[in-house]
Fold each of these.
Amino acid sequence: MRRDPVLASRVAARLRGAIAGDVLVDRTTRGMYATDASIYQIMPLGVVIPRSASDVEATIAIAREEGVPVTARGGGTSQCGQTVNFGLIVDLSPHLREIVSLDVAARRVRVQPGVVLDALNRELKRHGLFFPVDPSTASRCTIGGMTANNSSGARSIRYGIMADNVAGIDAVLADGTRAYFGDTALANGTAPTRYRELIAQMRSIAAREADEIAARVPKVQRHVGGYAIHTVDPERDFNAAKLLVGSEGTLAFFTAIDLALQPLPRAKALGVCHFPSFSDAMRSTEALVALGPVAVELVDRTMIELSREIAEFAPIMAAYVRGEPGSLLLVEFAGDEPAPLAQRLDDLDDTMASLGFPGAVVKLTDPAQQAQMWHVRAQGLNIMTSMRGDAKPVSIIEDCAVPLAHLADYTDRLNAIFARYGTTGTFYAHASVGCLHVRPVLNVKRDEDVGKLRSIAEEAFAIVREYGGAHSGEHGDGIVRSEFHEEMLGTRLVAAFREIKHAFDPGNVFNPGKIVDPPKMDDRTLFRYGPEYAPQPLATQLDWSEWGGFAGAIEMCNNNGACRKADGGAMCPSYRVTADEHDVTRGRANALRLAITGQLGPDALTSDELDDALDLCVSCKACRRECPTGVDMAKMKIEVLAQRRAVRGVSLRDRIVAALPHLAHRAGALRRLANLRDRIPGFARATEGASGFTSRRALPRWHATPFRDDRNAARRATPSSGSADREVVLFVDTFNRYFEADVARAAVRVLDAAGYDVRCAAARDGARPLCCGRTFLTKGDVTQARAEAERTIAALLPFVRRGVPVVGLEPSCLLTLRDEFVSLVPGEASRAVAGAALLFEEFVARELDAARWAPPLRTEPRRALLHGHCHQKAFGAMPAVMRALRAIPGLDVEPIESSCCGMAGMFGYEREHYDVSMAMAEPDLLPAVRAASAETLVVADGVSCKHQIEHGAHRRPLHVAEVYAGLLEATPARESPAGAVSGADRPAR
């Protein structure tokens, strides 16, 4: 449907005058909401972000009057295209996310539809309760979306699906009537007339179609297709909410949902069952289910192999997966006491042995270990779609459910279908209930593969129908499966569905084209990669060949929204503050994809709209590790900034920040003058407008005696002719050279004391110190960054080729050698330097493992709070930091569970970013530091992290090297202002 700009303008104006929430009609925002986690893309008329249920009602009224469809959206994780449409998209997740009431005794909770499942369960845990429907998207899926889709999860064999756990729904009907859908016995005469009329109509349809319902509705737990007319009792009272559950927002708009809760199990046990082949696992499932577990989940060979290639999951697979199994089944038992569960694991072991697989169970009784293994399973979809290239597992027969007795035969026949069409399939998830997430690997950019979509679906559904199964078992109908209702459920039931839709929504306002009167599932004009889809030619500044080009890197985003999580890890720090789709990796990736393919108009890549979308990306690189498909938005931002710089130029402030390494070397005595900015009253405020730096925090202070390499400089700057075993090259970055020079001196002292031959590599021209180029990269000056990389590689390579490690202090700088250098200067030399580059604490951990690390340290019992730099987390360095600190005698180390500190280099100093910067630090980091005693050490290796903590909590953190230096036996100790032991300030070496 072509967008009518006059209609769009009129509707937007009316909405802005009627609601308190936001109304967004710009191209970039609409593009972000044009997709969900399916293969589809439909550009909406506009996006509404309501702040209240009253906003929702006003939006529906205006949409009805204007003839504009309304589609509700939660986390946007739908697999079948349920949350894309051409009218108004109403995003409930930013504001309608309150827990309205909780009755612990009755085990009932009322929530707004935008509440995220994990957030709800974190609150319920305090009361010993939880909501038991547990889809793998729990970190970002909303209760409203789960209700609309009739979601399920790994433990449905014990707890059922959403329809079994929703007690009631407050809803707005298409004509504006507000009604509560619940137990019809409670309605009596108090319910609105419109509600009572609808219930009577539903009873009439259910009575008329009783025989057809009995004959056609699948007798499997995982049947969620169509409307749940089978839950309507023509004669007795029933729960009317069940009719709305699974209706995909096509019948009514939910404003509050009542849920039934369960007591939290006090103990769990997990058996990781190994099978030689996929077929062996399928044929064993019935026997394992007979043991009474709460979950039996499949992990197939493809998922095992892909997980081993992803940094976040590789250690987990190494710990709990033995050898090269063809498939795994994760079998979980739950109860009140651990001892009986241990016996259940023994029973599982015996059963596996009786099936011909002795010793094939890895038993996990530790909750942390179980959580790790479940984390891999929960990320199954993302892991599967982490395949590089255009061919991906495609959701078309994703959720077929068959009786367990037929599961093995069904999967055998599916594999035969895939082979006949020249492809393979991925299999994972709910073996316990015969509902596997099955995806054929296809390239939906090619007409040939698109043609296979329908054929594979039709043949698969025919098998499902033969077995009495359901073609829609968990993820709903949407565009993918609605078309097949007639084939699977019959003409009469589909006619009944159409009658139900018309009764509730005669004007077809709510999410048209889903469940009834759908488009063709293989209509490429509705695809994300439609017939005209083509990236525009672009001369990139970085090397994107690893992904097959810049477009390939962007397209790794599958829209599943793992970046929207609000707890655990670091991704995505700006979204955690704003709850805005613009500020999450998924939203930015969508905007980039649309921009490079011309869908946002000419020159979109360098537009202000795209620049705004990337503005709050702090380049934390958390997405590089925590996004299961490896979307590296920080690196993409560098590319976009470089493209924009070439066309639009750059501000004076950004030029100064980028050139900091050059300016620092030349500044000389001017450094002392720069420090006056925050000493002269009113000067910072007076210069704020011209400089762009906030006056609300002090700028970094230039050190009075910068670190220099002038003691035995010739010896230190050249490789030794002897053994490299005890030789290290210390890479001192600009920040630790000119601002935090004591850190560099501490590192030299500690390494010297530990018996290492410390060398400080110098550029061949000797003009100025080496630099990683990070400041240039943050401002898009790739040319200068590449020049710095080339200088640094040339200086380090002679050491590296002798096996000498390169040890750095500032995570963002040292890890640039491991990451961006390879994209800036592709080739063997940059790869060699990347392979030799270690953070100070990584070097310490390595030497500890080799029993070579033994600096003379005093034992001084202290507690330490550790904040990890985002790049340390992104590159998996935090275990090394913990290892290095815990090796210090008497030191008790506790990591602070926090996201980005919010400084991100110069980001937190920029006037327009100060508030967001502080908001990132406030939820976890700063409160933890403020609560620490004066005797507690605060440890943070990142220069910007240290400055944020000092500014926001008035504590001076120490680098790991400073902690070590303060405890060297030969060095007198002194108390720092923060109450932390540090080494005495020594002259530059």
Amino acid sequence: MTQTIAPRVRTLVLLLLAAACALLAAAAPASAHAALTGSDPRQGAVVDKAPAQVSLTFSESVSMDDDSLRVLDPKGKRVDDGRPSGTGGTTYSVKLHAGLPDGTYTVAYQVVSADSHPVAGAYTFSVGAPSETSVSVSGQAAGGGFVGGLYGVGRYVSYAAFAVLVGGAAFVLACWPRGSGVRVVQRFVVSGWLALTAATLLLLLLRGSYTGSGKAADIFDLSLLGEVLQTKAGAALVSRLLLLAAAALFIAVLFGAYDKREDEEKRDLTFGLAVGGSVVAAGLAATWAMSEHASVGLQAGLAMPVDVVHLIAVATWLGGLTALLVALYRGPADTPVPALAVRRFSRVAFGSVVALVATGTYQSWRQLGSWTAFTDTRYGQLLLVKIGLVAVLVGVAYFSRRWTAQLAEAVPAVAGQRKKERVAASGGRGNDEAKASEKTRTSGKTGTSEKTAAAAKTGTAEKSGTAAKTDSAERTAAAAKTATAEKGEAAGKTSGAGKASGAGKNSSAGKGSGAGKGSGGSKRAAQLARQRAAVDAARQKRQRDSDPHRFGLRRSVLAEAGVAVVLLAVTTLLTQTEPGRTEEEAKAAGAASAATAAPSTGAVTLDMPFDTGGQNGKGVVRVELDPARVGSNDLHLYVERPDGTAFDIPEVKVALTQKAKDIGPLPVAPDHITTGHWSASQVQIPMAGDWEVAVTVRTSDIDQVTLSKNAQIG
């Protein structure tokens, strides 16, 4: 049975690994987790005169260097001062050279979002009128190519190795303490530590090129490595390496001092190892939580500990499952996984699944924000695939629990049968030993009789001499015959002294031969013992593998492990995909920008100069209402200085009133989109007529003014 199972297992594992690699290879470059939600000038805009600066607004904070934000003229020449800076919140700007001529300009950006993923893109705007440009805005992608693919593989290996390390150690401590002495389990956990360490070092080397040029030649650039170490992602990777050093000490104690203790002594050490291992596992999980999705966005303070619990639950479940699979397939025959250990893991897995569902539900709400994001965004679609895989995994685990229950019921009967076999075997060996002892005693007596007779005959020959030839010759002939029969030598001498000497020689030779036979017998006994042990081990393995309950458990656990491999690949893709909430916000901002850049027929534009009397208190407020009809409308509000540059003010309010019908004021709370730009969608106007649009502008804590103009709503 096992001869046919092994090739199938190897084939299935190879197929699952190939599927995981295909998922990773088919993945697009790491999606922007910080989306561009606004710009000034806007994409495709045509302005009358060149702006003093270009501003970009992202959905979350980003990190920049001197080359992160560039503005290129139609010939591809850089026209910015090369010193981008933040202007507050998530808006970043770079100043332009004075006196720029008319034409089409390209804005190119490449930044790193707060969740450690690279973001790149480009767009154009025109001064005076559009013109031809030699700059291409296509192919602006970050995190792709060979370096991006290698970085994605490194991320997958690090997740899988973390699960193997944490889950394997948890399986030994919580489910099978005796497994700390099983060589295959030791190798499994140590391989997880080695893989996680190697993957972390690889990610640290790739990080600079991954977020920058994407060139393989920059992987070993020490200057880039120095810059990486100063970033949040670099600090997280270094912290992971330090925690792995502590994990190495934990592994040494688990498979060293812990394994050598007796069962009573292990209980005290188990508690200490459990506490220390939990701290190390939480620290390793935090290196992901504090540098990726959970560290930015909505409720980051709560999301990070929830993400730590989520990662540990996944590792305990999937890593422990893989450890169980290895022990079932590769464990020694004399140390099989007991049914008690399988039952314990079943309970641990159930608790992990409960924690996984609870934390996963919260993370899904936080990253999606709406039900439509499940189907309208790539993140939501991948999340649906992950949920389906988890459901399949739980379904297969149900069958594993059934096999576990049947295995537990079959264990007493199997144990009794094995006990009877051991008793029978020991009885048979006792009979053989008794027979061997009896033979030894018989041969000992025979040898003693022979030696005594030979001595007596020799003495008679010496005393009688040659006088009593007849009687002595008969006895001498008998002695010669006896010596020839027992030792294989011929004594044909006729003198009494010669016979005596021959008898002495034969006696000495007999003793030497006996010693040789004793040495050969001990080697033969050792060889027989080894053969007997090998036969016993093979018999135990056959009995173990022929157990239908254990065989069924092995198959179901193998299926679980296969689904887990694909599940980890989908999880890795999720961490590289833009969250659904961010993607929808970016789409909404893009739609608003497009609507503003090309207002539809019927839109109303109102310009209202203001002066609050304080510093930066002068400017112009522009209100655009589209389509200016009864029902739902989009409102955009822009604040500009007298020179036409956009700027932010602390507060702006809008209210709509129709005095003829005594309706209003109807308040409108626009959302801040980018520098000097506010927007509100689905502004409801109940009836046609002449409406007053009042705008309250506050430029400081005490300086504010309310402006109003009328607009005709059709």
Amino acid sequence: MELTNQLIFLAGLLFMVSILATVITPRLGVPLLLVFLVIGMLAGEDGPGGIRFDNYSLANLAATAALAVVLFDGGMRTSLSSFRVGLRPAVTLASVGVLATTLIVGGFAAWVLGLEPAEGLLIGAIVGSTDAAAVFSLLHTNAVSLNQRVASTLEIESGTNDPMAVFLTLALILYLQAPETFGLTEALTMLLQQAAVGAAFGLAGGWLLVSSINRLTLGDSLYPLLALFGGLLIFGLAALAGGSGFLAVYLAGLFLGNRAIRSAAGIRRFHDGIAWMSQIGMFVILGLLVSPHQLASLIVPGLLISAVLIVFARPLAVWLCLLPFRFPAREQIYVAWVGLRGSVPIVLATYPWLAGLENAQLFFNVAFFIVLVSLIVQGSTIAAAARLLGLQVPATSARIHRVDIDLPGQRGFEVVSYRLARNSRLVGMRPKDLVLPELSRIICIARKGRLLSYREWGTLVAGDYISLLTPQSQLQSLDRLFETAQEPAGVDARRYFGEFVVSADIALKDLCDAYGLALPDDAGEGSLADLVRKHLPHPVIGDRLRLGEMQLIVRAVDGDRPTEIGLRLPH
């Protein structure tokens, strides 16, 4: 009984410290997941906590379940619209990129550690994939605002590259256990089976889960649980059938998050909290598992392998994979730099222990060391790298809050709130004169901390908070209506987008005549939008194109067509 009380107290203490750390770490610029990992290490046998924990089977179980929850939540938060620009490059990075990283890092690790080639490749496979928890956590912060192409590529890659790393790790373990019976043919068969079965279970399971949520009459508090355990069920079924559970649960979350479902608001809020709990628990447990004194002997080889991974292997893999997609050089550099390693390599490093391989402890310690270096070096410089490379896109949305709401007989509605900035073009207008999308309605206006009655609305003033009821399909139209020149700290929107903004539909010839620019030979009689699309088939906000001495910056898009272009004049 005493042991039970102590364990409950210890779990509560570790989670409480980890949660309170989220208040401090953003101000220090330290990756939050690194803090969770360090808390686990401090509680471990070499830290003040003195807890001896070496149950690799339990750690693998807990971390795998937590990672499945994180991937499910990440899938729900990934919009299908991001696939327009990010799917093909992300899938290439998640497959060819992981393989290239494995070969380069594995070859170097075998040489520097004096291992057999297959053992070195196993280390390369373990650290070959980027980490979904780390990438989702760092990119979904106010400190980083990237263009859609870069953000989509990084998020989709991190959500889909785990299956490739798991496959390579398992294949190399099987080869090390029985090199005479496990060859290339068996490995390829295993890869196809994991990908096909995982994708099939993910899509079919996602459809069944959406249908169940919408058709079953349950208490409001049970729908989030149905979604959670439905996702875990899909993971387990896919894995038992020989497929990739990680791929299945991500696709199921993607399917669920892009459909109109009952109790959507409750499901999203619940899973946001559960994903945080999973990340905290996963990193704390993995931190408990390591013995820091064993890492001392790996400082030199660990730093060398980390340097090869960060400075050579990842950038080379990114360059090879993104070559067909015409990513600008600065975007390739950033994608290479955000190749964060986190929980996945540590989880995969427990597989050699479970398989009883001879150098299992070495594999685990090397992987853990590389994760520490990645989170410290790369994780703490994500925002700085975006600013340095000119990829920090100024935010123009005035939206400050959104929440899903279930109306009787209706789904897919939200209450969204906007704050009018001083430079908003809506200041001075009457609310009834706003050209709102059909079905969108103003429900309240707050001014100076007080909710106004309808008769007090008058004309809009700077600082007003306007809340509206709107279908999710009309959210982008509202964002454009309330768009303003607001910008995050440290970013000059005027400098970023240029001195002037014009419609992308203006004739290119008229623009060139107005500014005394030579008309490009291949321009024809088209518009400015046609010129941009000719050179940038899938333009996103922040894309740049040079026209003589003038620089064109895409400021707004509608699908694949730019609608507003910023003009940066020569100085």
